[in-house]
Amino acid sequence: MILSDFRRFLSAALVLCALALAPIRAGAEGVLVFAAASLKTALDEIAPEYEQQAGQDVTISYAASSVLARQIQLGAPADLFISANSDWMDVLQADGLIDVSSRVDLLGNGLVLIGAADRVAVGQIGPDYDLTSELNGGYLAMALVDAVPAGIYGKVALQGLGLWDTVDGQVAQSDNVRAALALVAVGAAPLGIVYRSDAQAETRVSVVGTFPADLHPPIIYPAAVTVSAKPGAQAFLSYLQTDAAEAIFLEQGFALPGGGS
Q1: In this structure, what are the phi and psi dihedrals at residue 93, rounded to the nearest 5 degrees?
Q2: Nearest to residue 102, comparing CAs of 18, 220, 226, 188?
Q3: Distant-in-sequence, close-in-space partners of 206: CB < 8 Å, separation ≥ 6
Q4: Which of 85, 100, 261, 244 is nearest to 177 (CA)?
Q5: What is the rounded CA–CA span in Å between residue 6 and residue 219?
Q6: Which of 4, 64, 14, 11 lies closest to 34, judged by CA?
Q7: Domains (range + CATH), the chain
Q8: What is the 3-state secondary structure (H, E, C) of the chain?
């Protein structure tokens, strides 16, 4: 009888303990975000503010959108995906890997030509820009031109200007746009093509010129919660659309959907 009572007491105690710990575990359960590399500077500022307000950890994995999308296809446990173009989000949507109802166009961006910090700016890049001479035997740093959004946009822009064929053999392709940015920042490449926000994030480079927006498809950053996401993922995505987060994005050189800046 005593043993039976003890067992009931122990069972009740365990249940109460579990109930007491449940909210703590739920609150501590972090969110894993897969985000395009160009978002690093902005999200590294936004995430800590959200963590402090929400009491929830946010872990962010940065890479090229193509790499992240393929990892999700292979079963990576991402809760939220933010791509630097719509195509890779479309791929995951077609595969049934994102919650379509959560999908939003989060941000926009611009495309620029960068060089060393002391290089003279030329304004808007046109078909008469002598890119070959400006490279002076060096390489043009770009993200992978057939897979990574920044590289794809850059190649299309150069093709539209009739400049691609003149520099095709002088392109140094990197895994993502931040890697291309780094090549110019350390002097390994005299020029590079990156997003406007990337150039703003690196003091060792300057904007040599901007590419007209009509030379390439609109640069859109779609975001969506994955079908296997933890509940907190939607809350973080909603926070990214608040005035506080948008102010940081704008400060970092991004644009808001619909051309807002």
Answers
A1: -65, -40
A2: 226
A3: 114, 115, 116, 117, 118, 119, 121, 199
A4: 85
A5: 66
A6: 64
A7: 19-108+220-254 (3.40.190.10), 111-215 (3.40.190.10)
A8: CHHHHHHHHHHHHHHHHHHHHHHHHHHHCCEEEEEEHHHHHHHHHHHHHHHHHHCCCEEEEEECHHHHHHHHHCCCCCCEEECCCHHHHHHHHHCCCECHHHCEEEEECCEEEEEECCCCCCEECCCCCCHHHHHCCCCEEEECCCCCHHHHHHHHHHHHHCCHHHHHHHEEEECCHHHHHHHHHCCCCCEEEEEHHHHHHCCCEEEEEECCHHHCCCCEEEEEEECCCCCHHHHHHHHCCCHHHHHHHHHCCCEEHHHEC
Amino acid at 82: I
Per-residue pLDDT of the chain (261 residues; tens, 9 = 90+): 333 443 333 333 333 333 233 332 334 479 999 999 999 999 999 999 999 999 999 999 999 999 999 999 999 999 999 999 999 999 999 999 999 999 999 999 999 999 999 999 999 999 999 999 999 999 999 999 999 999 999 999 999 999 999 999 999 999 999 999 999 999 999 999 999 999 999 999 999 999 999 999 999 999 999 999 998 999 999 999 999 999 999 999 999 987 545
Tokens describing residue 17? 């303990």
